[in-house]
Amino acid sequence: MYPVRAENIVKYYKKYANKHKFLTLKSAIVNKSLFSDLKSNEIFEALKGVSFKVKDGETLSIIGENGSGKSTLLKILAGISQPSSGNILTNGRISALIELGAGFHPEISGRENIFINGIILGLTKKKIQEKYNDIVHFAELEEFINNPVKTYSSGMYMRLGFSIAINVNPDILLIDEVLSVGDASFVPKCIDKINEFKRKGKTIIFVSHDLSTVERISDEVIWLKDGKIEMQGYPKRVTDAYLEYIGKRDEKKAGKKHKAEEMEAEKNREKRWGTKEIEISKVKMIDKNGNEKYIFEQNEPFTIEFNVNSKIEEKDFVFGIGIFNTEGIQCYGSNTLIEDFKSQSIKGKGKIRINISNINLVNGTYFFDLAVHKRDGYPFDYHHFQYTFKITSIYRDVGIARISHEWEFSKNIKIHKKSLPK
Amino acid sequence: MISKLKDLFKYRQLIVTLVSRELKARYRGTVFGFFWSLINPLLLLAVYSIVFGIILPGSSGRVENKDITGINYSIFLFTGLLPWIWFNSSILESSNVLFIHGNLIKKIKFPIEVLPIMTVLTNMIHFMFGVPILLVFIIFFGKGVVITPWVFFFPVAVFVQFVFTMGLSFLVSALTVHFRDLKDILANLLTLWFFGTPIIYAFMTPAIQNHKAMVLALSLNPMTHIIEAYHYTFFFGSLPHWKKLPVTLIAGLIFFYIGYLIFDKLRDTFVEEV
């Protein structure tokens, strides 16, 4: 009934004491510590008792941060490493897509590698002969199949690896993050193939950071945290809880990182130029309560505040701001000239605030530029790509800005809005 | 142990495939291609023939009614050198084989013991390719050295050597995972071992037979009896020593058992340590 059953899986890695790394056989013999060195003295628990069952034909996804034990769990399911205690019961042929093309020999041809890799994965020669054309065709490598594998691009390499692994025709498919490295046209093909598996009623266990794919393909999601199951259940519920946790954690980290980034920026002159006759300094972002913050909700009002110091008396000056996303696309740009301010004079110290009532950008990380210059572009101080902030949103809409809109449906269309997760 | 050896039989297709891959891949892209497996022993042969046959001759003289000087010395040398190269390369490569194929160990469910077996078998096939050359040498250049029916006994020596080498190979491949410097120690140890085995000299030379301690020391070395068996079947044209070789086989089996036991014991640590 259950193709995969994990019962209280514990895995600890033995961490050998630091000095062990520098020890050699010679010193082990001299110190008569040969056998005690082979024993570890520190233990790191990667999995602390994980139990779950996967029903026939179900797709289970495992999410979690780096180091939470996902890959360890998958390796144990695949039979690559052994659990320290607990049981894994599997029923059916397993194929694990953990690293594509592991075991390819670079010096020999793609054709020979298909046979060797197939045999390594547990197929017979006859079976590979039958599937050979399918494998080559799916990998789109007809022209190159007789060339040595070392001449392949990484995309070709991956395609061949995926194609062999998928043609093993497993009952249970284990997939680790492998799809994240594929070329753009091949990944949808892989996803199609995985969906085909699903339709055929095969069991899939999927480990990924790509939450949208996870939500799309899985029936159940497990969130692993520090080697334990933090949450398990309906995909959307688990991914939302996970996102919320990640958001909170990032908030703390970003605060620390920001200070370091600022110091870095001081050194980095290429990102800052100008005569500094008028200087911009102490740039910070604050929320409506006056707290310094770097992560804001989509519709949360916030303020960019900075100090200016003019060493000269100047009557021609323009302040500007530009906001960019991580792809370098300018999401917004404006300055005091565009907005019809007429400059009269600036001298000495001052403070400037830009109050943003509703930024309306989609969730993601953004950079902003601040500048002060003359009307003809003569730069006093230009800060380029120096400051970052993050926008979070309950919706995962895409693009640049959230264009405000409403959906309206005629009565005969039955559709309703889900209540938001708490 | 027995059931695990039965498992190995299951992997025979995998082993055959991997060995042929190794053979194909090793010389692909080189100018001489497969001839390298012949060129290497021939070059060694040339060096030792010049040094011990011409520059420093005469330590061997006549042994077992055969003249071991001049061209005969080269043939004698080649007889011992070929199996030694098999042994030497197998052990050296075993110390690296788990690292080279770390991907198979870490990313795929893979019977790891196949890797040392592959190493020893690959080198055995190289050795086998050298045997016809040896026979050609004996037939065309041997002075008073002839092929006798005892030559059909040489597979026995191959079998004993295989068992012994395999045991050591398991041990070495498993231990280098935990002690990386074993690799460097091995290279030196094998050079020492080479001179401690009757390859460039005959075991039966009076110079050795007159020293009781030396005879005892050499007799404790399993490779002595294995190489001697080749000497007898090919060069002296007589029966391998009927007592020494079976005793060596028993020693070889013990090595095999211990080697495999340690390999099996450490198996689960390979995934994490390689």
Describe this structure in words.
The complex is a heterodimer of chains A (422) and B (274). Chain A has a 6-stranded mixed β-sheet, with helices on both faces. In chain A, strands 10, 12, 14, 15, 17 and 18 form a 6-stranded mixed β-sheet that branches. Chain A has 422 residues and is α/β, with parallel strands linked by helices. Chain A folds into 3 domains: 1-93 and 170-175 and 194-267, Rossmann fold (3-Layer(aba) Sandwich), CATH 3.40.50; 100-169, Helicase, Ruva Protein, domain 3 (Orthogonal Bundle), CATH 1.10.8; 271-392, Coagulation Factor XIII, Chain A, domain 1 (Distorted Sandwich), CATH 2.70.50. Chain A contains 10 helices and 18 strands. By secondary structure, chain B is mainly alpha-helical. A two-stranded antiparallel sheet of chain B has the order 1-2. Classes of the chains: A alpha/beta (422), B mainly alpha (274). Chain A binds chain B through residues 13-14, 24-26, 28, 37-38, 75, 78-82, 94, 96, 98-99, 102-103, 105, 107-108, 112, 115-116, 119-121, 124-125, 148, and chain B through 13-14, 17-18, 21, 24-25, 28-29, 101, 103-110, 175, 178-182, 185, 268-269, 271-272.
Summarize the structure.
Chain A is of the alpha/beta class and 422 residues long. Chain A is 28% helix and 33% strand.
Give the topology:
The complex is a heterodimer of chains A (422) and B (274).
Chain A: E1 4-15, H1 18-22, H2 25-30, H3 34-38, E2 42-54, E3 59-63, H4 70-78, E4 85-90, E5 94-97, H5 110-120, H6 125-139, H7 154-167, E6 172-176, H8 186-199, E7 203-207, H9 211-217, E8 220-225, E9 228-233, H10 235-267, E10 272-273, E11 278-287, E12 295-297, E13 302-314, E14 318-325, E15 330-335, E16 346-356, E17 364-373, E18 379-392
Parallel strand pairs in A: 3-7, 3-8, 5-6, 6-7, 12-18
Antiparallel strand pairs in A: 1-2, 1-4, 8-9, 10-18, 11-13, 13-16, 14-15, 14-17, 17-18
Chain B: H1 2-10, H2 12-27, H3 36-55, E1 61-63, E2 66-68, H4 70-100, H5 102-107, H6 114-141, H7 154-178, H8 182-195, H9 206-209, H10 212-219, H11 222-236, H12 244-273
Helix pairs in contact in B: 2-6, 3-4, 4-6, 4-7, 4-8, 4-11, 6-7, 7-11, 7-12, 11-12
